[in-house]
């Protein structure tokens, strides 16, 4: 029985489903608007991953900036 990866186009949930005669639906929001992901890679899932990645990078950049400020403050304290 073939298992396929799907991604929900409504909520972004990714899941595996058996492909039968009836269409699969999202386990999270029951949407039938699903994108079937090719095993290995998919162009459209790449773009989704890129947007997730850039969001994560932005979040990480903010944390890193805050951390750098803490480091500068720590250095000032060391020098007085
Ligand atoms: Zn969904």
Verbal overview:
The protein is of the alpha+beta class. The protein folds into 2 domains: 1-40, Rubrerythrin, domain 2; 53-80. It has one helix at 43-79; strands at residues 3-8, 14-18, 34-37. The chain has a 3-stranded antiparallel β-sheet with strand order 2-1-3, with no helix packed on it. A hairpin with a 5-residue loop joins strand 1 (3-8) and strand 2 (14-18). The radius of gyration is 21 Å and the shape is rod-shaped. The relative contact order is 0.13. The model has no long low-confidence stretch (mean pLDDT 73). It binds zinc ion. Zinc ion binds at residues 8, 10-11, 13, 26, 28-29, 31.
* Ends distance: 70 Å
Cα shape: rod-shaped
Low-confidence stretches: none
> Biggest sheet: strands side by side, in what order?
2-1-3
Helix content: 40-55%
**Level-2 CATH architecture of the largest domain:** Single Sheet
β-strand number: 3
Strand content is 15-25%
Q: How many domains is the backbone divided into? A: 2
Features:
80 residues; alpha+beta; Rubrerythrin, domain 2; 3-stranded antiparallel beta sheet; 1 helix; 46% helix; rod-shaped; binds zinc ion
Element layout with pairings:
Layout: E1 3-8, E2 14-18, E3 34-37, H1 43-79
Antiparallel strand pairs: 1-2, 1-3
The protein binds zinc ion.
